[in-house]
Amino acid sequence: MTFASKLQDFGRQIALIQDGGARITYADLARRADAVYAAPGAPALARALVAIECENTLDTVAGYLGALRNAFPVLLVDATLPVDLRERLYSHFGVSFVWTAAGRWEGSHRASPQVHRDVGVLLSTSGTTGSSKLVKLTPANLQANAESIAEYLELDSGERPIANLPIHYSYGLSVLNSHLLVGATVLLTAEPMTQRGFWDFFRDDDATSFAGVPTTYTTLRRLRFEQMSLPSLRTMTQAGGRLDVETMRWFGELAASRRQRFVVMYGQTEASPRMSYVPPERLLDKLGSIGVPIPGGRLDLVAEDGCPIEGTGVTGELRYAGPNVMMGYATDRAELAMPDTQRGVLLSGDLAWRDEDGYFHLAGRLKRFIKVFGNRIGLDDVEARLKEQGLDAAVVGRDDLLVVALRGSGPDADRLATEIAARYRLHRSAIRVAAVETFPMSSSGKIQYAELLGALDS
User: Fold this and answer.
1) Is 237 in the same domain as 377?
2) Which of 233, 215, 114 is nearest to 171 (CA)?
3) Residue 318 and residue 218 share a domain
4) Are the C-beta atoms of residues 37 and 209 closer than 8 Å to each other?
5) Which residues have a Cβ under 8 Å from the Cβ of 388 and sit 6 or more positions away?
6) Of 364, 396, 424, which residue is a domain's last?
7) What is the pLDDT of residue 129?
8) Of 308, 371, 380, 316, nearest to 348 (Cα)?
9) Which structural domain range is residue 382 located in?
10) Are residues 382 and 448 located together in one domain of the fold?
11) Looking at residue 447, what DSSP letter applies?
């Protein structure tokens, strides 16, 4: 049993408030969720793979919850993802039923693939590039993480979070899940924080919390957030990449001065997604830390040979264990049917060290992924697309900056950067294109990406 299957238990408690003012009770949300799968065009085949083209709307929430309630494995897709990328995903995995952002079913003649009985939700590892590498999450994974988040954030039915992060994004999804678990009232909007309408909605409906990625908080500082009157605000949470220490301190001190909480968290989609958090009362003396494991989880460090690292101040790969760890990845239809390969353990791909109080601190990345404005970007995916265009390109980056190195003739750098920003829906300031004479290469003929980034990121 999950939070989705128990919606009706909260009866006439308000589950959702839409930014147009409409209010939906838990009982009505349960009925609407089930009605999606009884609507014309809905899949009749048990365990058929469904895609939901997500926006922050009642139709999307109902489609998602209905899939969990009726045991349909569901692929959550950004509704604004370019059509060619969406179709590539659907074709690759055999999706034959799509619940659109407009709230209707669309079908195809593709045969639905076999999906393992435990798979509940599929999320792309790189949502803005339409990566064909999916994370397989079970309903039990989602339930365990929602329970853990609700415990360490001390959530109850009196909470009124404003759910501004996308639902197809694991962080945004976890905000929804953890609050529905406790019978809270979720304020649902797609308005960006830079718009007056967002804050009008926030004040009018007494929002108690909001969630943000690093760029959210740097933007709020520029907007003079400290001058905003938000009497109902109690909690701010941050995840989706590393926040710089100075901004972390600024919000930590502001929150403390207002008797609010600023909670810095760490996670990955593969963990449904939360893995650690910094207790707000320790934030200012643990600046830069990703904190301690979430309730029910365990963090440790492993050396290159796989042996655990017991000491403090020693860098190793961060390893997480807990009931929220995915079943594994799916890169094709056959892998959708594969059983659990993780056994509750996840090697994060991040390097970290442990301090004397048991708090963990990140030291770098092992994998070719970055987070740009909260979106996880596969650098190899971007590079492959550029090469498809006939460009001799190497792609590197760090959080909130994607760098493209071009050899030989090619389009104007500014024009290419604008095209990349539009393709992946990133701000132009996050893209840098540089012409190079050569790429640094290893003796085995491989591009030395770290060396290239060091030369270009200056």
Assistant:
1) no
2) 215
3) yes
4) no
5) none
6) 364
7) 52
8) 316
9) 369-456
10) yes
11) B
Pick the closest to residue 319 from 311, 329, 308, 310 (CA basis). 308
Whether 108 and 240 map to the same domain: the answer is yes
The last residue of one of the domains, among 330, 364, 398, is: 364
Q: For residue 113, give the DSSP letter.
A: P
Longest dimension (CA), the chain: 67
* Residue 273 near residue 267 (C-beta atoms within 8 A): yes
Which single residue is written with the structure tokens 């839409």?
18
Q: Is the peptide bond before 273 cis (omega within 30 degrees of 0)?
A: yes
Answer yes or no: do 19 and 136 share one domain. Answer: yes
Taking each helix axis from N to C end, the angle separating 58-69 and 26-36, rounded to the nearest 10 degrees, works out to: 70
Q: Which residues of the chain have pLDDT under 70?
A: 126-131, 367, 442-446, 458
Residue 387 maps to which CATH number? 3.30.300.30
The domain tally of the chain equals 2
Burial call 411-447: b when 16+ CB within 10 Å, e when fewer: eeeeebbeebbeebebeeebbbbeebeebbeeeeeeb
Is 264 found in the same domain as 134?
Answer: yes
Based on the domain organization, do 158 and 283 belong to the same domain?
Answer: yes
Q: Are 416 and 410 in contact (CB under 8 A)?
A: yes
Angle at the Cα of 135 from the Cα atoms of 131 and 137, rounded to 5 degrees: 150
H or E stretch at 134: strand 134-137
Please state, in angstroms and rounded to a whole number, the distance separating the CA atoms of residues 133 and 159.
Answer: 35
Token pair in block for residue 396: 């590197």
pTM: 0.84
Co-location of 270 and 328 in the same domain: yes
- For the record, the structure tokens of 235 come out as 């909690």
Residue 444: per-residue pLDDT: 40
Q: Nearest-5° angle of CA 349, CA 130, CA 408?
A: 85
Any idea how long the chain is? 458
Identify the CA nearest to 320 among candidates 355, 360, 284: 360
| Whole-angstrom distance, CA of residue 239 vs CA of residue 221 | 17
What does the pLDDT look like over 285-319, one tens digit per residue?
Answer: 999 999 999 999 999 999 988 999 999 999 899 99
Note the pLDDT of residue 130.
57
Q: What is the CATH number of the domain that holds 51?
A: 3.40.50.12780
Alpha helices in 304-366 (DSSP H): 333-336
